[in-house]
Design brief:
With about 325 residues, the protein is α/β, with parallel strands linked by helices. It contains eight helices and 14 strands.
Length: about 325
Amino acid sequence: MKIILITGGLFSIPSIHHLAGRQLLHSIVSLGDVNKNNVPIEFNAQYLNVPFKRFQKDEIKTKLLNWISDAGVDAVLVFGCRYKMPADLLCIPPLGFYNVHFSLLPAYRGNAPMFWQIKNGEQQGGITIHRMAEDFDTGPMLVQHQTNIDPAENHGLLSARLSMESVALIEKAIDRLQNGNTETLPQTESRATYFKPPVIDDLKIDWEQQSATEIECVVNAANPDYVGAVTLFRGQPFRVLEVNRVQMPSPQSALPGTVVYADINYGVVVACKDEQFIRINIAQLNEGIFSGFKLVTLGIALGERFENPTNLQGVAID
């Protein structure tokens, strides 16, 4: 069996090594411009002596189509592709195109499923390998794997873990296809949810409306791919990369967003609604990335207040 892998994400690297080790890879394809995510894919392909090709979006119906047609592969496996595949391309491999998606479809369709699952506080997630259709994430499912999402996992940790767990699921999918078992399960449209890629407003911390748990969720969802959740401090954007909920020995009434503890030994503790509290462990300012303890030495003081961002025009999401 021979496979072409189309990928643009670092999370495909464990599977690349596994497929190359089994001598199943015909080639690796990346779509779009060179960027920080697909350059390591090319390096790994070179290291493994696997042919690597790069095509632009406007070359999908021409050069990519010809590459797949000439390759004569059995299937195409897709990891993190942001472009739709036309029907005349999907029908070329005898066994079809299969997409690896980091959610339990039909829930969390879209190209940022891990962000939204973490932000929404989901306790369970997973991986789905489904046959591709022209619309994103809608094709019938071949195999699924369910896993728990730890409340302390950020986007990077969950991505890394699912990257490793996807290797076994891909192996299961390949075994089924090689044995002639191509039976798939249609997705139930009534259970489908779709989420657009996050924008800067989705990274906001709302001190008045969000609980400590909800703030921790948005912070974890935004680290590291979106450079942290966003609040305002002294009128400037302040990116929060890691927090944890804490219990105060003598809870005090304070407006949400107020610094209620600032100490070089314990860090910065901020009041949330309903007399809940979080400690800021890591933050990014214009001057650099700092621990909560360092923030105290930089001058964050008891009684100061973080504010809800309003106009974030010009603030980058990554």
